[in-house]
Amino acid sequence: MTAKTSSLSAHGLVAGYGSTPSINGIDLLVSPSTGAIGIIGRSGVGKTTLIKTMTGELKARGGRVNFDGATVGRLGMRDKKRFGVAVRSVAQNGFSGLDGRQTVEKAIEGELAKARKAGRATGASAEGAIAVMFLEPRFLKRTISSLSGGERQRLALAAALSTRPDILLLDEPTTALDQSLKDAVSRRLAEIVEENNIGLLVASHDLDLINRLCPTVHVLDGGTFVETGSVQELLNTPKHAVTRELALVFPETTGTFA
Ligand SMILES: Nc1ncnc2c1ncn2[C@@H]1O[C@H](COP(=O)(O)OP(=O)(O)OP(=O)(O)O)[C@@H](O)[C@H]1O
Fold this sequence. Notes:
InterPro entries: AAA+_ATPase, ABC_transp_ATP-bind, ABC_transporter-like_ATP-bd, ABC_transporter-like_CS, P-loop_NTPase. This is ABC-type dipeptide/oligopeptide/nickel transport system, ATPase component. Keywords: ATP-binding, Nucleotide-binding, Transport. It comes from Sanguibacter gelidistatuariae. One of its GO terms (biological process) is transmembrane transport. With about 260 residues, the protein is an alpha/beta fold. It has one domain: P-loop containing nucleotide triphosphate hydrolases (Rossmann fold). About 35% of the residues lie in helices and about 20% in strands. The protein is built from 9 helices and 10 strands. It has helices spanning about 45-55, 75-85, 105-115, 125-130, 150-160, 180-195, 205-215, 230-235, 240-255, and strands at about 10-15, 25-30, 35-40, 60-65, 70, 85-90, 165-170, 200-205, 215-220, 225-230. It binds adenosine-5'-triphosphate.
């Protein structure tokens, strides 16, 4: 297996769409040697914007994003290819670059071929790769566009994991799943991330998911991280007004963090 040395970092990152950037001066390091990082905050605060800028999908307006020290967006051909397999992301809608007209089998086989070509050990069959996210073999012949939102979300996770990434960025990865699948998927993700030493960044409103996966959680507000801690610390002793808001509503939905 490829040595896990990749790192993805933001330095004074400024990003967003309107006249006021949603992300305004963020520093962040995601790598297999740092623990998983969670990003929480109000709806529309810029979580997706941050992830899209970290993957290079959205251009930074200031500061920079580095992959192994080189600026993302200005990577040479070789580094670009390595970036493509070492850093994977799963977007909120679960498509993540998958072609809806393709069958599940074709899409996953394409991912596995890409990983093999990049020298990443993938003994897995397409069947084995989707089973990781609790999708049965009967899904292999289905087109991606025919899948339900939750099936597509699990396929997108399976596709990203099948290339054995060093770094995984997840944007609301469980929104389309029912509660029992949410639990199963978050448990499975935690196992895979730990076993394979994957650097993980997760943005989500699902604090159960964040709590299971991420020992360190940043609260995003007004363009920067206003508070950092474990989910327990943030909910039990919130300091910032936004964190207090979250703490007020969350214990009423689950007693996990009391
Ligand atoms: N393509 C776009 N064009 C213009 N503005 C956008 C675009 N995408 C997002 N925005 C705006 O940028 C801001 C940040 O959006 P973003 O999607 O990053 O928030 P978020 O924290 O991920 O929200 P949510 O929790 O609701 O998913 C919002 O005000 C949003 O309306």
